[in-house]
Amino acid sequence: MVNLPTPIQEISHPLLEEKQIQLFVKRDDLVHPEIMGNKWRKLKYNLEEMKSNKQTSLVTMGGAYSNHIAATAAAAHEHKIQAVGIIRGDELDENSNPTLRFAHSKGMQLHFANRHRFRDFRENLRLIKEEYPDHYFLPEGGTNELAVKGCTEIINEITIPFDIIVTPIGTGGTFAGLVKSASESQKVAGISSLKGDFISSEMSRLLQKMNIKSKNYSIITRYHFGGYGKTNTELIDFINWFKENFGIPLEPIYTGKSFFGVWDMIKTDKFEKNLKIVLLHTGGLQGIKGFNRKNENIIQ
Predict the structure, then answer these.
(1) N or C: the chain end with fewer CB closer than 10 Å?
(2) Entry pTM
């Protein structure tokens, strides 16, 4: 079921010809039908570590619409691992939205925690280990050293020469993996879906923690559309336009904002001419059903 290396799709459009930019999409959304994109990459070596430790159960954390929760549930089911998901929001249950229903259908045990309890779990690993002593722990979003290792393999699959690779930023594991594996001539740009310039210092700390010394990267913070999970009609219209024109579905939390940002920067001449840019599609398409259920702006 794993499709590796994931394909690279060139985008053709009059704007790109006018601006003399070559644009490609690394289709990591096609790596696996249920364990998409960076989530498959992040889980790869963590699952291998579990097997080497002879562990058969894991515990992780996430929000109600978490791509990480959905992907981990699918991976655990495929690998015959028992999985527990600690979900933020004690008002929720396994039927609250499509993401939670999917995770539950894959056999994940969903434990719902109020916001205070969830924050305590996230900030104090000891509490997790006390409550789930025999479980392998995956942090919220799945970012740890083994996740970064998995994400370093993305660039190795890109056989065309390129100047810049662009990724959405959430917890930063994919970004760190790209920075670690990029050559000196390749730049990594991360587009944050979170509001605030704090993300730059957080990514700096993450790179330092992972002992990644490269400085050949940039973080772009102006395409958050109001913050994590926030959208507007302009973003949704772009997502639908992009799919209609290029056959590539995007979701509004990460990839939609990242692709919108690059397209806007091309339009406004923020890139030099004659660049080859790779957009990394990190998956997350499972979240579209939940978004459409909550919002009037419908993604096609």
Answers:
(1) N
(2) 0.96
